[in-house]
Fold acireductone dioxygenase (Fe(2+)-requiring).
Amino acid sequence: LDADNYENDPCLKEIRRAENYSWMDIVTIHKDKLPNYEEKIKTFYEEHLHLDDEIRYILEGSGYFDVRDKDDKWIRISMEKGDMITLPAGIYHRFTLDENNYVKAMRLFVGEPVWTAYNRPADDFPARKQYMKFLADEA
């Protein structure tokens, strides 16, 4: 993907069309750009899940998504400019910045955005149960 030309990138347009990502915004995570920065950083790092997929496209800067594997161990995913990630509904995860303390990311959603994060434990949600079934079926 061409992060410098995201507004006109044909590859991004095709991904949005194919995946039905109809809503998007851009968030900048930096102490001078994000209101309540310290509080937000702590919230992002709390282990949580969502009931919808979480799609992020890094336009500038870098950071880490940590996700749990099938054995409940952390996997750290380094994200930098041009990277896109889709975290499936029901996966426990967290986000943190790296030593650069800056990231600008596009947030994509199917339909209207839902921002609700459910901190662990949140195992009774259907999205979590479906994700766990997916892991079992893949194993």
